Amino acid sequence: MEVRARAVREHIVDMCTGPEGGHLGGSMSAVEILVALFFHTMNIDSDDPEWKERDVFVLSKGHAAMALYATLAEREFITREEVSTFCRPGSRLATHGNVTVPGVEFATGSLGHGLALANGTSWAQRQAGPAPAHTFVLLGDGELQEGTVWEAAQVSRALDATNLVAVIDVNRFQQTGAVHEVSDGAPVADRWAGFGWHTVEVDGHDLAALCSVLDEAVRTQGPTAVVCRTVKARGVGALAGRASSHFVRLDTERKRARVRASMSPAAPAATATAKGEPGHA
Length: 281
Known about the structure:
It contains eleven helices and seven strands. The protein is of the alpha/beta class. The strands form two sheets. Strands 1-2-3-7-6 form a five-stranded parallel sheet, sandwiched between helices. Strands 4-5 form a two-stranded antiparallel ribbon. Helix 1 (about 1-15) crosses helix 4, helix 3 (about 30-40) runs parallel beside helix 4 (about 65-75) and helix 3 (about 30-40) crosses helix 10.
């Protein structure tokens, strides 16, 4: 899975070299989360993306679609060659998720709505039988400022959504700056626990730990929130842990060379504090 994660990161950088650029930071922070879900946890079939008994993944932080497309390519839902068409004329790989892409369940991008959609799919799964499939939804910590998230979280608990797992990418930044400066929502885990969710915290870049926690979430009887401590633009040393990585256009060879040169297996730990930024609970 480490090899897969490296490949996903390389795909993301390549997508950002196109004329439109892309949401690099929030895509990079979610790489290990997606790799753990698609290569370890989720019961899915790339040969039959519409398999009725499949687990469902909802990308609520829809601007991280590059990470999802790259993961789908590595999981062979789409070809690796298609990744290079990102945002090109006629491509189905749009800036935000496109449901014509196998493995993309919903078109998301207006933040705050993914959990409500996940409530619906997890409820439908439970109607299908006594051993339902699971729904996994990925949210960002900036996204938690949307009130619809907490309305949906309350409904999840009321519906006793035993097969629902919310994964929160706590990379500490949103488009306009540090989350704690825009509208502080820390401590994130306590908020989910306060809504009656079983809640666990984990290093969102530790694949072994992620797989273990996700296994626990699948076994838990009740909605589970997996709070992942991550680094925005993880793996890109020149941009990691910076708000400026939110959207990047690598449209010159000089920019591409600098970013590729900064990429290495060694990256900032998820618990590290970004330069000039205070810690985040």
